[in-house]
Amino acid sequence: MDINIITPSYKLDFERCKVLCESVEKFVCNYKKHLIIVDALDYQIFKTLNSDKTEVIIKEDFLPDWLYKVPYSSRWWLSFKTLPVRGWILQQIVKLSAAELCDSDAFLFIDSDVAFIKPFDVMSLVIDKRARLYSAPRKTSDYFDRRKQSWHLKAANLFGITDISLLSQDYISQLVLWRRDTLLKLLSFIEDSKQRSWKQVLCNNLDFSEYTLYGVFAEQVLREQSGHYLTKEELCYCSWHHEIKNSSDLSSFLATVPPQYCSVLIQSNLKISPPEYLEQINQLQKSFKAD
Questions:
Q1: DSSP code at position 254
Q2: Which of 58, 126, 149, 282 is the most buried (most CB within 10 A)?
Q3: CB–CB of 22/2 below 8 Å?
Q4: 127, β-bridge pairs
Q5: Residue 93 has pLDDT above 60, yes or no
Q6: What mean pLDDT is reported for the chain?
Q7: Edge to edge, what strands does the sheet with 106-109 contain?
Q8: pLDDT band at 291; cut points 50, 70, 90
Q9: Percentage of residues in the chain with pLDDT exceeding 70?
């Protein structure tokens, strides 16, 4: 099974993305290519990351011509066929376009504020031709979070699921693996049911979660035909599960990374710059011997 790594990014995350790319090339094996997807205006900054295993791609080259970036804005895109599209929604459209962007059998999505800390073989995510899919029980607090609840209800509406008790799983994590054939079935399902292109359907939504859409479709619509096996174990030690308010908190977080994790996420919205944690990341990496 061919697996491409995909990372959408933008100029303010360049230094973080550089850390990710260096860690991928040092620690990760058996992937086909690492694709970094950026706005056209950001390409000049990111092109230095191009290498034999890393390719920087301009999102305007594969998005529909009815979508236009609002000049001098990182948050909005204009559309001639839908509502204006927020940058966060556009990033999800980019991920859902992976099957149109490249022909690999599967896609491993990794955000640009992730860094690998030890060797990792992407083929370890495939067992008996079935791809790993993160699916963990939703936390009680998720059911009272209006936004997260709306993501599940949106998926249920799109896929005709009326029994909301089926919406019990959380699919949002890092190092999330999607199959190309399953993604194509998801997009075809939306187009067949709505009689419009899937991009138009989703761009007309003010909020949704791409990981929730894919997870619900794979687990509740395709089920055994999804080509996935399910696991509740995460691969990345994520800062969003911890209260981190300053560099001291971050140091404590990095000092307690459990051995089962191959990577760490340090959210960009924590406003802690890479120079503030890069030395600690390097120390973590040095504690493991790369293949």
A1: H
A2: 126
A3: no
A4: 130
A5: yes
A6: 93
A7: 54-58, 34-38, 3-8, 106-109, 176-179
A8: very low
A9: 99
User: pTM for the complete prediction?
Assistant: 0.94
Of residues 141 and 111, the one with the higher pLDDT is 111
Residue 40: how many CB atoms within 10 A of its CB?
A: 11
In the block, tokens 């993305």 appear at: 17
Contact in structure between 184 and 99 (CB atoms under 8 Å): yes
What DSSP state is assigned to residue 70? P
What single string gives the DSSP state of each residue in 4-61? Answer: EEEEE--GGGHHHHHHHHHHHHHHEES-S-EEEEE-GGGHHHHGGG--SSEEEEEGGG
For 151-171, what is each residue's pLDDT tens digit?
Answer: 999 999 999 999 988 899 999
Task: Say if CB 229 and CB 132 are below 8 A apart.
Answer: yes
Question: Any residues with CB less than 8 A from the CB of 67 and at least 6 apart, and which?
Answer: 77, 78, 79, 85, 90, 203
In 3D space, the residue among 284, 245, 237, 228 whose CA is nearest the CA of residue 265 turns out to be 237
- The pair of structure tokens assigned to 61 is 């080259």
Contacts of 50 (CB under 8 A, 6+ apart): 56
Nearest to 102 by CA among 38, 23, 184, 26: 184
**β-strands 28-29, 120-121: how paired?**
parallel
Q: How many residues does the chain have?
A: 291
For residue 180, give the amino acid letter.
R
Least confident of 25-39, 56-70, 118-132: 56-70
Rounded distance between C-alpha atoms, residue 110 and residue 6, angstroms: 6
What radius of gyration do the chain's Cα atoms show? 19
- DSSP per-residue codes, 205-218: -S---HHHHHHHII
Supply 74's token pair.
Answer: 């990182």
CA distance 69 to 267: 25
